[in-house]
Amino acid sequence: MPELRFISDPPTEAEALDAYSQAVTSVAEKLAPSVASLRVSRRVRGGRRLDGGGSAVVITPDGFLLTSAHVIARTDGTGRASFIDGRDHEFESVGADPLSDLAVLRLDTNGLTAAELGDAEQLRVGQLVVAIGSPLGFGGTVTAGVVSALGRSLPVPAGRVVENVIQTDAALNPGNSGGALADAQARVVGINTAVAGLGLGLAVPIDAGTRKIIAALMTEGRFRRAYIGIAGGSRPLPPRVATQLGRSSAVEVVEVVDGSPAHGAGLRAEDLIVEVDGVAVETVSDLQRLMAGDLIGQTATIQVVRGGSPLSVEIVPAELTT
Q: Is residue 122 over pLDDT 60?
């Protein structure tokens, strides 16, 4: 006969944990050993050094960590990384990409617990996410919330933006930068990067584009981008052209940088860029994604609409320097 329990009996510990609590607890237990607290020093005016911190996520058992580029900016690329089990190791920077705000570090150790990287492209607004990092120096701190918006833009140096940034209401504070933003399966879907305001945080997504950046930083120490030298914005296509191409917008050239590849190729203000090497361009982010390193020094064909008429322009992109 099953044991009888009265309504007035206090709930068991398992019953007291609702589904939300169980999900957050599970993520914390699985992922916290993979998140390090970083200590760095920055040079300031007068030759003094200012101590700071951040977080990082272990991505390989043999010592590669992922963090935010701004965490190690203006440092000598070294510091200390500590874990919740008490281990403490010196790290050195392998490479940083300020235009995505990502950096890769290396510890001279093995046997680390690597986090599983997820896919931010599968996220939905309202989905549970858990942030783990070292806000204000308190290592292993866990907060939870939801994806409050997707597709945000994060301004970075050189007038560029990181696209498809994740917005969350999980509490983030100084020191969370470089830490993990994870889904309910403890897969890292973002690297926390900024506090956007009261109750709003931003994270660089882990997706196909950022995986390429991470791989390049691990193997080459940098991520190369092509550069054509324009400022532009998304604009509607003329109705006739829109009907012909089967899409509604393109990138209008607002300004051409003197001496740039675009200037040499004869691109002009008010040109509408519709394709690069046969790939459709509708937004500035489309154009940025196409400026991959393998285009550097190679002839590319840009299709534009000038004065309502199509025009083909040959261009040789240069390497973007920051």
A: yes
Q: Does the pTM exceed 0.85?
A: no
Q: Which of 282, 257, 270, 271 is nearest to 311 (CA)?
A: 271
The catalytic position among 101, 183, 271, 286 is 101
DSSP 152-171: EEEEEGGGEEEEEEEEE-S-
Q: Is the pLDDT of residue 81 over 90?
A: yes
pLDDT at 6: 57
pLDDT of residue 290: 86
Indicate if the pLDDT at residue 9 is higher than 70.
no
Of 55, 70, 97, 148, which residue is the catalytic one? 70
Amino acid identity, position 205 = P
Phi first, then psi: give them for residue 213, nearest 5 degrees.
-65, -45
251 sits in which H/E element:
strand 249-256
Tell me how far apart the alpha carbons of residues 105 and 71 are, in angstroms, rounded to a whole number.
11
Q: Which tokens is 15 given? A: 């019953």
Element (H, E) at 28: helix 19-31
Q: Of these residues, 177, 183, 249, 285, which one is catalytic?
A: 177
